[in-house]
Amino acid sequence: MILRIQEVLSKGVPTPLNTTLDVTDLMKGRRDVLEAGPLAVRLTATPEARVVRVEGEMSLDASFACSRCLEPAHEHVEFPFSERFKLATSESAVPPEEDVIVAEEDKVDLIPYLEESLLLHLPFVPLCSDTCKGLCPQCGVNRNEIACSCSNDRIDPRMAALKDLFKD
Ligand SMILES: [Zn+2]
Ligand SMILES: [Zn+2]
User: Fold this and answer.
1) So what's the pLDDT on residue 50?
2) Of the bound ligands, which one is closest to the alpha carbon of residue 69?
3) Is the pTM for the entire model greater than 0.90?
């Protein structure tokens, strides 16, 4: 997906940039992503003085390993995207403290920016359900499926040490 900065600036009107990206390769390194559908990209490139603002929404459907029980957790991930680009050669009035990506060439490949944004917006703690009981820390069964008889009382290690003191 290519943004042509000069073209958008000379047209002077917002240009839609819509595509569907296959992110299978991007997700290969992520063990928590079991399956990821294509990334739907709906952006608009808007000229603003000598800068082009690219903004819109991205979304994808994916399955993650539930962070409690490791079973697939299906999630619809949707997030906004907004970046501004300007040509390195342009004498821009943009103050240096503002966030603008400076492009060496007129043609900017947006895919790396879209991918980076996607990775930042993947769920940090995916859950198959809000009430997922997770795996038993003692016997390892999936407690959503089997009620084991392990005691799951958490003993404060300091209390355990006290118990030992008074044991005799
Ligand atoms: Zn779960
Ligand atoms: Zn158990």
Assistant:
1) 86
2) 1
3) no
